[in-house]
Specification:
single chain, about 240 residues, mainly alpha, Non-ribosomal Peptide Synthetase Peptidyl Carrier Protein, Chain A, 3 domains, two-stranded antiparallel ribbon, elongated
Length: about 240
């Protein structure tokens, strides 16, 4: 017997996704929602066809693909790449392409002293967490309280993972279990910072050169983060 499997996008107004306001949040990813009226019309249309499995999801492809570098678009979505407008991509050296706003976070961090970068990244993580939760960007969240106790469920966790991966210059995609492996804003920030190319610069900047003189030592001390200061002081106490 003939059968049809429909992979539905998010319906608005009814269902668990609507109750969790997922229909409001997915707009940030370039994905639209399906009203009950449009959903019924879509079902009637696909049932008249001969497909066995069909996805029904309203998508703004140019906006959707801004989440990816051009060489990281999933293979199964490759046929949709032609929908992306050239204005959404800017060229970098050696032919590399990234979305127009993807390097902002890394560039902002690079302009800061090494010792201040992690704190700035934590502000960015907090702002993006508030964004996927539908809160004001200036909302102060508890950096050490588990995110699942602050309104982050499995759907939001995926959205947050995708949003956090943008603009950090990461060499590989963040794990799907990111928010569960690092369940607080503080632990998320520490992990993300260690994945950026700036992490090695920070470690190098924390070590004063032997012949750098007093100015080099003072500069290195000013670049230390609070955590590094506490660690060094602890090591000094143990040595005594």
């Amino acid at each position: 017997m003939a059968a049809l499997s429909i992979n539905w996008g998010v319906w608005t107004g009814v269902g668990a996704a609507a109750q969790r306001k997922a229909d409001e949040r997915i707009g940030l990813q370039g994905v639209g929602v399906i009203t009950p009226e449009k959903g019924i019309q879509a079902m009637e249309r696909v049932m008249r066809g001969d497909g066995a499995q069909i996805a029904v999801v309203p998508v703004d492809w140019p906006a959707f693909f801004k989440r990816y570098a051009s060489d990281r678009i999933p293979a199964w979505l490759s046929k949709m790449r032609n929908e992306v407008k050239p204005s959404g991509i800017r060229r970098l050296t050696k032919g590399q392409t990234v979305s127009a706003d993807s390097s902002n976070v890394l560039e902002k961090l690079a302009r800061l002293p090494a010792g201040r970068r992690q704190a700035a990244l934590m502000d960015d993580v907090m702002e993006k967490t508030a964004k996927v939760l539908g809160l004001a960007a200036t909302t102060e969240l508890d950096t050490e309280k588990p995110l699942n106790e602050q309104g982050v469920d499995s759907l939001i966790a995926v959205e947050l993972r995708n949003l956090l991966g943008k603009g950090l210059g990461l060499q590989k995609r963040l794990p799907a279990t990111l928010v569960f492996d690092y369940p607080t804003i503080k632990s998320l920030t520490e992990f993300l910072y260690q994945q950026t190319p700036l992490f090695e610069d920070n470690k190098a900047g924390a070590q004063p050169e032997a012949d750098g003189g007093s100015e080099g030592i003072i500069g290195a001390i000013e670049d230390l983060s609070d955590e590094e200061v506490e660690r060094l002081l602890g090591e000094d106490e143990e040595s005594r």
